[in-house]
Amino acid sequence: MTELSRRDFLRSAGMFGVGFAATGLQQDETGIQPMGPVTHWWGEPLGRILLNVMTVYEQPSWQAKPTGVFYYYNDVVQVLSAVGGEGLYHTNHTWLQTPDGYIYSSWVQPANSYFNPVVPIGEGGAWGVVTVPMSSARSGPSDEAYRRHWMHYNTVSRVVGLENDYYLVQEIYGYQYWVKAAHMRIIPPEEVAPISTHVPAEAKRIEISIGEQRLYALEGEAVVYSAPVSTGAPGFNTPHGEWSVIDKRHSQRMTGGVGAGAYNLPGIPWISYFTYGWVALHGCYWHNDYGRLHSNGCINLRPEDSKWLFRWTTPQANYWDFRTLATPDNPGTRIITRW
Predict the structure, then answer these.
(1) Which CATH number fits domain 126-187: 3.40.50.150, 2.60.120.200, 2.30.30.40, 3.30.930.10?
(2) Which CATH number fits domain 201-338: 2.40.70.10, 2.40.440.10, 3.40.630.30, 1.10.760.10?
(3) CB distance 317 to 310 below 8 Å
(4) Is residue 259 pLDDT above 80, yes or no?
(5) 3-state secondary structure of 301
(6) pLDDT > 70: percent of the chain
(7) Which percentage of the chain shows pLDDT scores above 90?
(8) What is the C-alpha radius of gyration for the chain, rounded to an integer number of angstroms?
């Protein structure tokens, strides 16, 4: 990976995400014209709808005429292309062309659909990632068993058994359920092995700019990785300060909130806790709104970005454990959160 100085990286960071169908649309008789690059889509052929009701438009703009078609929560739609249009938020001008028209990408989870070979599960278990838009978590290893909840694309779980082509999933606090084995890819240990291990732990740090809604990973003064983030929404502010990673988990269910703000999210991937109030870096599958305040205080990242950071940061995670705690011999990477 080419290393850039912080100044050079900041100058080039605005190019993030450009390259997939980024030509946008040309101005037509409606006066609509592209207002920014494609930044919230990376070539995925499917999208899972994240709003209760989503209007489909004839053009990638809020000024355009609705087609009369509506999508609903958890609908999975084909994505033909991504274009730059008139975004609702200044942080995202990306619209998705579907067979029925255009939808706004902040409320669509990028997804794909891969079916996997069934892999025997050894005594130590393994980690698995869901590779279809949605899969049922069932009470038993059968298509007829009661569906307890949905597992979504890119969620990660601990697999501890196999029966009747279903994997038995066990969460960190003991809760168990079954997921169709073809819907999960077993992650080999080398895929999530630590990286940049030649760099001393004290030379690594993460800086999170809440004003920019962006994360920078540095080795010394060289930026080696950067990603858009979503930090705490008003009332759930991400704390400012200097911290270090204290607890890493490949995956965990997170619950909290009350009333309309309550959440119960299984399989959140690639978690790095850095405060004793449970603020963490982690992957996200319930919004595509990076670059804008959105979370309950944590640092939301694309799953791909959180996975890279999980491998790069210390303490170095043990594949066979549910959690790895920082110790004097395996210290945590420094994290700075600032405006």
Answers:
(1) 2.30.30.40
(2) 2.40.440.10
(3) yes
(4) no
(5) strand
(6) 90
(7) 85
(8) 20
Of 22, 77, 78, 86, the closest CA to residue 58 belongs to 86
Q: What is the pairing mode between strands 66-72 and 92-98?
A: unpaired
Token reading at 275: 């405060």
Instruction: State the average pLDDT over residues 289-316.
Output: 97
Find where tokens 């255009």 sit.
Answer: 102
Lowest mean pLDDT among 6-20, 85-99, 155-169, 245-259: 6-20
Largest Cα span, the chain: 65
pLDDT for 34 equals 56
Per-residue pLDDT band at 9 (split at 50, 70, 90): very low
For residue 26, count CB atoms less than 10 angstroms from its CB and return exposed for 0-12, middle for 13-18, buried for 19 or more.
exposed
Question: If phi over 0 gives left and psi between -120 and 50 gives alpha, with beta otherwise, what is residue 172?
Answer: alpha
> How far is the C-alpha of 9 from the C-alpha of 309, rounded, in Å?
18
Tokens encoding 81 = 């292309």
Q: 320 in helix, strand or coil?
A: coil
pLDDT band at 227 (very low <50, low <70, confident <90, very high): very high
Which H/E stretch holds residue 179?
Answer: strand 176-180
Strand partners of residue 216: 207, 226
* Residue 240: how many other CB atoms lie within 10 Å: 11
* Short-list 284, 271, 278, 310, CA closest to 297: 278
Query: What tokens were used for 168?
Result: 């038995």
Q: List beta partners, residue 107.
A: none
Q: How far from 202 is each of 195, 218, 243, 314, 327, CA to CA, in Å?
A: 15, 11, 13, 10, 14
pTM of the prediction? 0.89
